[in-house]
C-alpha cells in the first residue's frame, strides 16, 4: 500500500450525487451541498465555475476542475449570466428552466438529440458531468489538507480515456448504471489528482514526491503496509538496503520529519478512524491494532499528536457523525 492509495481510499463515490446535465444558454446551476470534494468536467461545450468568494474559473471541453468544500459554487454559461440559479445538490430533482435539464445518475438525450443526432443534446449545448464525494474520517482529511480550494486539470491526459467511458455510459439508462458511474468517477478523480500533483512547476505534498524516491518510497510503503509492525529505523534501513543514518537523513529531507515520527502520526490517524468505526472496541483493542501493547502508552501518544485523549476524541467524533447523519 502506498501513501496516496491509503489517503484516497475513503474518498469514494457511492451514489451520493451524479449529475449529467445537458445545458443550453443561459444557465446557472448552484451546487449548494458544499461537499468535501466535487469533480466537474465538461464533455462538450464550455462554461464557468464560480466558487464562493473566489474568482471565476473557465471550464472548457474535456477539462476538469475539482472544488474543495465546504464552500459552494455555481456553474454558469458566462460570468454575469442572466439565468436564475437552480439549486442542485444530493437531492436535486429535475428542474426544467431555461433549457436546463438536470438528471441524477443518468442523462436523457431527449428531443434535442433526436433532431440533431447529437448525443450530447442540441447544437451549442454543454454537457456537464458532476460527481460529489462525501469524505469522512481522519485518513481522507489528510488528502484534503493537501489540496487547494480549486484545482484544474487540462484535457489530453490520462483522464481522457475515462471521459470517453463516461460519455458512453451517460448516453443510456441501463441497470447497474449508478455503480458504473461511481467507479468511473473514482477513476476520474484519481487521474485528476495524479496529474495535478505531477504538474510542471507544482508543489505537491512531501509524501507525494517522496514516494518516487527509491529508498524513502520503499520505507513509506512498508510503514503503510504494516503500520502495527514494531518498526525501528534500523529495521527500515535493513529492508531498504541503506544505513540507518542514510535512511534517517533522506527520509527527514524528503518527508519533512523522521521516519518514526511519521509512523506515530500515521498510527494516530488510523486510530482516530478506528475509534469511531469500531464502537464496541476498547481503547486497548485499538491500541493493539495500531501497534501498541500498552494502552497507556497509546493514550499518551494519541493525546500528544491529537491534543485530546482517545476516549474524548471518540465521544466528540461520534456526536458530530450523528449530527451529520
Automatic annotation (TrEMBL):
Entries under InterPro entries matching the protein: AraC_lig, AraC_XylS_family_regulators, Homeodomain-like_sf, HTH_AraC, HTH_AraC-typ_CS, Tscrpt_reg_AraC-type_HTH
Segments forming domain HTH araC/xylS-type: 217-316
The keyword DNA damage is assigned to this record: no
Source organism superkingdom: Bacteria
PROSITE patterns: HTH_ARAC_FAMILY_1, HTH_ARAC_FAMILY_2
Keyword DNA-binding: yes
Region spans: Disordered: 90-122
Alphabetical keyword list: DNA-binding, Transcription, Transcription regulation
Record Pfam families: Cupin_6, HTH_18
GO molecular function, one term: sequence-specific DNA binding
PANTHER family: HTH-TYPE TRANSCRIPTIONAL ACTIVATOR RHAS (PTHR46796:SF13), HTH-TYPE TRANSCRIPTIONAL ACTIVATOR RHAS-RELATED (PTHR46796)
Name the UniProt record assigns to this protein: AraC family transcriptional regulator
Origin species: Streptomyces malaysiensis
